[in-house]
Amino acid sequence: MKVPMVDLTRDYAEFKKDIDAAIYGVLNTSHFIFGEDVAKFEEEFAKLNGSKYAISVASGTDALRIAIIASGIGPGDEVITTPFTFIATTETVSQAGAKVVFADIEEDTYNIDPKSIEKKITKKTKAIIPVHLYGHPANMQEIIKIAKKHNLIVIEDCAQAFTAKYKINNQWKFVGSIGKCGTFSFFPAKNLGAYGDGGLITTDDEKIASNIKTLRNHGSSQRYIYEMEGFNSRLDTIQAAVLRVKLTKILKFTELRNQVAKKYEKELKSVCITPVVKENCYHSFNYYTVKFDSKETRDSVSKYLTENQVANQIYYPIALHLQKAYTRLGYKEGDLPVTEKIQNQVLSLPMFPQLKDEEINYIAEKIKEAVGVKR
């Protein structure tokens, strides 16, 4: 049985009639840049997410870059984040002229550890970027507490976590509505995926929202009048139209992902460590990531799954602080021990709302066979 990590053809089948109509609607108006679907999508996204402003951009990477710059982060500043993430989280900090500072992660959620954050704060620290990895919210209660204590900006990287929720001060909030800004990716394989690249920034801060709108359009809020240098980072109207359709079912699809996760857990809890979901968190399960006792076991399971046509992926095999791109920062092996342990143990399995029971059972069966063969 062949099982993909994500099946976008099944996803398209769920929406085909409405998406086709939405795309043809844009083609008929031929308003491809800043068409009405863009503003409507931003309004609908903000309403669902509980944010005052939602500003769309060309990608999740641009969302980070523009949110960082719009928040006033730049040369001379330090930004604390996790090394266990995709490089977009950190390259955008460097590209804004600030310095990346890596903190270690929690062993159970794989998210940035607030205790490690505290140890990394200096007089130059300007911001914290927690990543809600795989769809599980970071410990925002403690992170916000630290940020308030040291007067720091918090930018949530929500690329893998749209519709994840966190209970803070006895109130459930969607990720991206807790910090100063939230950044989102609409890469096709995300929970809310476009048919190409796309991204968005949420904020309740009017000044930051204004800066973002200006920065995404070449530093201009009025045609041919430039307040600053900016970027060409606009969400195409066709992508906005597609996303508007898919947004209508996003909460249902996140719940289906949670149901898939429960089925996985039932089959795998005796074989490997399945994802932890903290009591004050609602997981969006962009990825379903299990953990094994060693790199040798993890790698043998991955190899066996691949041989049996089950897609799998390691997010992430080498943490950023050990990558060539960041040798200038001077980190060495042993500096962030939890991260370095986890990178050798995790494995992500197929995860999408339409994953069938027989596929889940087949995947679980092959993992059990692999572990049995190993032993």
Key structural traits:
12 helices, seven-stranded mixed β-sheet, alpha/beta, Aspartate Aminotransferase, domain 2, 2 domains
Structural features, described:
The protein is an alpha/beta fold. The chain folds into 2 domains: 8-247, Aspartate Aminotransferase, domain 2; 250-374, Aspartate Aminotransferase, domain 1, CATH 3.90.1150.10. The chain contains 12 helices and 14 strands. The strands form 4 sheets. The chain has a 7-stranded mixed β-sheet, with helices on both faces. Helix 2 packs parallel to helix 8 (237-247). The protein is globular, with a radius of gyration of 21 Å. The two termini are 24 Å apart. The mean pLDDT is 97.
Helix and strand layout, with pairings?
Elements lengths: L7 H22 L6 H14 L3 E5 L2 H11 L7 E4 L6 H8 L3 E4 L11 H7 L4 E5 L10 H11 L2 E5 L7 E4 L2 E4 L6 E5 L13 E5 L2 H10 L4 E3 L2 E2 L10 H11 L2 H19 L12 E2 L5 E4 L3 H13 L29 H6 L3 E4 L7 H18 L1
Helix pairs in contact: 1-8, 2-8, 3-4, 3-7, 9-12, 10-12
Shape: globular
Record field, number of beta strands = 14
Number of domains: 2
Order of strands across the biggest sheet?
A: 1-9-8-5-4-2-3
Number of helical segments?
12
> Helical content, roughly?
40-55%
Please name the CATH architecture of the largest domain.
3-Layer(aba) Sandwich
Q: Note the gap between the termini.
A: 24 Å
Order of helices and strands: HHEHEHEHEHEEEEEHEEHHEEHHEH
Compute the gyration radius: what is it?
Answer: 21 Å
Q: Structural class of the secondary elements? A: alpha/beta
Mean pLDDT score, rounded? 97
Strand content: 5-15%
Which oligomerization state do the chains in this entry correspond to?
Answer: single chain
Low-confidence stretches: none
User: How would a textbook summarize the main sheet?
Assistant: 7 strands, mixed
CATH superfamily of the largest domain: Type I PLP-dependent aspartate aminotransferase-like (Major domain)
CATH first level of the largest domain: Alpha Beta
- At the third CATH level, what is the topology name of the largest domain? Aspartate Aminotransferase, domain 2
